[in-house]
Amino acid sequence: MDLDDLHIFRCVVREGGVTAAARRLHRVPSNVTTRIKQFEERLGVALFRREGRSLRLTESGRILLGHAEALLRMADLAEQELRSGVVRGALRLGSLESAAGARLPPILSALHAQHPDVTIELQTGTTQTLLRRMERFEVEAAFVSEPFERGRLASRPAFEETLVLITGRGGPPVRRAAELGGGTLVAFPHGCSYRQRLIEWLAEGGAAPERILEMSSYHAIVACVAAGTGAAIVPAEVLDHAVMSTAVARHPLPEHLRRNRTHLVWSGEPSAPLQALMALLLDADGRAAA
């Protein structure tokens, strides 16, 4: 396959259409359209389904996109190695908000200091959201939480978190899951691994929440709990950095729920920027950094 055809195809996907891709590629739209049509004719399949003015990937297009990402990444890697050995390029990275806020800043800062030609594009979301983005090749790698389905993804432990239960101050200590039954849980939207753990703990105790209030950030979750809205489960290190951390009561969770690992997952051969990030995740003894 012609790498230029793959580059044009990927650009149309990323930019969401021919016109935007043409601007990015410094071409006229008619040239981009012609190249895509010629590419489809040579492959004998339709890569896009045209719906009015918008384009949507067909199943063949989705399959090709995965190969295009891998082939173009390998081409970039080959060029980098043939040049000065400097690591450069964009690293599209996904992360849980907890890792992005408490764990990644010093690591990404070190990566920038060591490899200033690497650009980081960071997206946050729940574990399930990040895994879906990986399936659509929107990110190259992601930091996700246990439990998750690895499938064909490669993975390695990155951080170990201590989870705590929080409630409003002034209430009784919470020792059993049943004590939360009939109350309100404050959590990220469906797909959050921590939310799943809390619900499973309640189920073990024969309890269920009356409702789940969904929030999009840890600061909002902590603020709602501090206001007496309900209970939540958060990483202790995130809580330590939260604005209203002293306005909530902490309760230890059972040992099988307390410890949780965040994993770095990726698909295929990692790019040079991703390999540089992986190197920073290891301590001097070669173990996953705590």
What does this protein structure show overall?
By secondary structure, the protein is an alpha/beta fold. Helix content is 44%, strand content 23%. It has helices spanning 3-15, 18-25, 29-43, 59-82, 97-114, 127-135, 193-204, 218-226, 236-241, 255-258, 272-280, and strands at 48-51, 54-57, 89-95, 118-124, 141-145, 154-168, 184-187, 211-214, 232-235, 248-252, 259-266. The strands form three sheets. Strands 3, 4, 5, 6, 9, 10 and 11 form a seven-stranded mixed beta sheet that branches. It has a two-stranded antiparallel sheet with strand order 1-2. Strand 7 (184-187), helix 7 and strand 8 form a beta-alpha-beta unit. Helix 1 packs across helix 2 (18-25), helix 1 (3-15) packs across helix 4 and helix 2 packs across helix 3 (29-43). The longest helix is centred in the N-terminal third of the chain and has 24 residues, at 59-82.
| Overall number of domains | 3
**Do you know the CATH topology of the largest domain?**
D-Maltodextrin-Binding Protein, domain 2
Total number of beta strands: 11
Number of helices: 11
Give the arrangement of secondary structure elements.
Blueprint: H1 3-15, H2 18-25, H3 29-43, E1 48-51, E2 54-57, H4 59-82, E3 89-95, H5 97-114, E4 118-124, H6 127-135, E5 141-145, E6 154-168, E7 184-187, H7 193-204, E8 211-214, H8 218-226, E9 232-235, H9 236-241, E10 248-252, H10 255-258, E11 259-266, H11 272-280
Name the descriptors.
single chain, 290 residues, alpha/beta, Arc Repressor Mutant, subunit A, D-Maltodextrin-Binding Protein, domain 2, 7-stranded mixed sheet, two-stranded antiparallel ribbon, 23% strand, elongated, disordered C terminus
